[in-house]
Design brief:
Elements (H helix, E strand, L loop, with lengths): L2 H17 L6 E4 L2 E4 L12 H9 L12 E5 L5 H8 L4 E6 L2 H13 L6 E5 L12 E7 L3 E3 L14 E3 L2 H9 L4 E12 L4 H10 L2 E13 L2 E12 L15 E2 L9
Parallel strand pairs: 3-4, 3-6, 4-5, 6-9, 7-8
Antiparallel strand pairs: 1-2, 5-12, 9-11, 10-11
């Protein structure tokens, strides 16, 4: 099956997850309870968030002390961002294009007592950040399934599943290393459900190098899927490009659990 044709299955997963009658208001993951708001990607309906915890070292048998700052792009429910704060990161930002996901991240930061060091912001990739911010770790668990370049999202929930023409991936490859501190890491969680050779070619075309830090193979239904954690670096011969002009940051306040 081609990567383009596979996107329809991912869109169907999105639709079924949103419409599921057993979609919970909270869910358990890695020994903790988490809030789940409507129209936010549900980790309880997919193993990918649990895999992300393992790849990042946040699972129970591999938890290690952390320090510094952590940026999660596409924070969704905030599981990864909150886990980074709980693991010791002093400054954490969770960014998502969906206002409901931003709110969900803030709710889980409050639930787990890390609101003092976790900020939830709304923006497309890096657009919601404060000018001049830099991070020890920049991370995105991407929407790695390739959709046709002319596909138009019907609902914001689909953004967690597919990326038309890999436009967001190209932006992330170009911009993520520019948001890291000296010696910091820009990370990308990808999967072989996506176009892995296409990702390598795209990285090469924009002067970026990829290195696989860790990988995990898991069963998802009738398939075995490989999840990979890439580190993105600037190729030595490439002069770093300036960051795009940022837009004003929006921080979502808490006005009560489960309400916009």
């Amino acid at each position: 099956m081609s990567h383009i044709s596979d996107y329809r299955r991912s869109l169907e997963r999105s639709r079924l997850s949103r419409a599921s009658g057993d979609r919970p208001g909270t869910f358990a993951l890695r020994g903790r309870e988490w809030d789940l708001l409507p129209d936010v990607f549900a980790p309880s309906h997919s193993r990918s968030t649990d895999v992300a915890m393992k790849l990042l070292g946040f699972d129970d048998d591999l938890e290690v002390p952390r320090a510094g700052s952590f940026l999660e792009i596409g924070s969704g429910t905030g599981v990864i961002a909150v886990s980074a704060a709980l693991a010791g990161c002093e400054r954490v930002v969770g960014s998502d294009i969906s206002p409901q996901a931003v709110r969900n991240t803030a709710l889980n930061a409050e639930r787990h007592g890390v609101s003092d060091r976790l900020r939830a912001v709304q923006g497309d990739l890096f657009e919601g950040l404060t000018p001049g911010e830099r991070f020890s770790t920049v991370y995105w668990h991407s929407n790695f399934v390739l959709a046709p370049a002319d596909y138009t999202y019907r609902h914001v929930h689909e953004r967690a599943y597919v990326d038309p023409g890999y436009a967001a991936h190209l932006r992330y490859l170009r911009e993520a290393p520019l948001w890291t501190e000296p010696g910091g890491s820009a990370l990308l969680h990808f999967s072989d459900r996506g176009d892995v050779p296409g990702l390598w070619n795209m990285a090469d075309s924009c002067g970026r190098e990829l290195r696989v830090l860790r990988s995990r193979r898991i069963r998802e239904g009738a398939e075995t899927v490989e999840h990979m954690l890439f580190e993105i670096t600037v190729a030595e011969a490439v002069v770093p490009m300036p960051l795009p002009k940022p837009v004003p940051r929006r921080t979502v306040p808490l006005r009560g659990r489960g309400h916009l």
